[in-house]
Design goal:
alpha/beta, six-stranded parallel beta sheet, about 300 residues
Length: about 300
């Protein structure tokens, strides 16, 4: 059964029997966050034993899943089994545990961005007693939700420019974004000074974000040598190639949106008001050049 993130709490709270759940996707940080939330928040009132199993453990002991699921703990009333790097050849072991449905047990399978045709996804999505939760990369909407939650939890006030900057700057991986926001929490907690944009840029070490923006602008101006140099620098800094491509694609989408509004009769100033998040004022001149340069 396919579920959404807001359903997890209700499923865990209303069912203390057997809960098999697959949590997968490219957003490693969000996957970890869901597992952490299940353990610390949803199961906070229960004494539980945590068992971690890896693909390597299964290679050494193919029966470890069934043994762990069916063993009785002497000190805990509930059991959470977390399995990582599961291989297709071991899925039959998971199926066996699902069929036996051991009581007071949660089985969490953690996986990366597996295909819809994978045996693991088919097992969890087609079975009414199982749950499959996808964790895709954060978009502008989920980033803004994360920022608002951070503001509320830390009692920090961000103006609109800071929020828009964070939406454009934070990573699509929740864990990376969380670590960046933690820097701001440590700096501004119990601080008498109000957050300001330039200070936040320095705190978050904005070099990588600036290089992505410079790459987008160089590509749009047709400067291949400069673009190649910036891309090589980004890769040497550890940036994911997919993130680099996605940055350029998002830039093109924003450019296309403005061009569509301009073809409808709006001028540039009116057209950029349709962008969400809004265009950062320092990028405005170059963005306008690109709008005029491209059809």
């Amino acid at each position: 059964m396919i579920i959404k993130d807001f359903q997890v709490e209700k499923i865990v709270n209303e069912n203390k029997g057997f809960i098999p759940i697959l949590i997968y996707g490219p957003n490693e940080g969000l996957i970890r966050n869901h597992i952490k939330q299940i353990k610390l928040d949803y199961l906070s009132s229960i004494d539980f034993e945590e068992v971690s199993i890896t693909g390597k453990s299964l290679e050494l002991d193919p029966d470890i899943i069934e043994t762990s699921a069916n063993s009785i703990s002497m000190f805990n009333s509930y059991k959470v089994i977390i399995i990582e790097t599961l291989k297709d050849k071991h899925i039959s072991k998971v199926e066996s545990v699902i069929q036996s449905a051991p009581t007071q047990t949660m089985l969490i399978i953690k996986a990366d961005n597996i295909k819809k045709t994978s045996k693991l996804r088919k097992l969890f999505e087609s079975n009414a007693s199982c749950y499959a939760l996808a964790c895709y990369e954060d978009d502008a909407r989920s980033m803004m939700k994360l920022i608002d939650s951070f503001i509320k939890e830390n009692n920090i006030s961000f103006d609109r420019d800071i929020k828009n900057y964070l939406v454009q700057t934070l990573s699509t991986d929740r864990l990376v974004s969380f670590n960046e926001l933690q820097k701001l929490s440590l700096f501004y907690t119990n601080s008498e000074s109000a957050p300001n944009l330039e200070e936040i840029k320095n705190l978050l070490n904005d070099a990588s974000s600036n290089n992505l923006q410079k790459m987008n602008e160089s590509v749009m101006l047709g400067n291949t040598i400069k673009s190649s140099n910036i891309i090589n620098k980004l890769l040497s800094e550890g940036n994911n190639p997919i993130s680099i491509l996605r940055s350029l694609i998002n830039y093109l989408k924003r450019l296309q949106k403005v061009k569509v509004e301009m073809k409808k009769g709006s001028n540039f100033e009116s057209a950029i008001k349709f962008l969400r998040p809004p265009l950062f004022w320092k990028d405005k001149d170059n963005f306008q050049q690109h709008c005029l340069r491209w059809p």
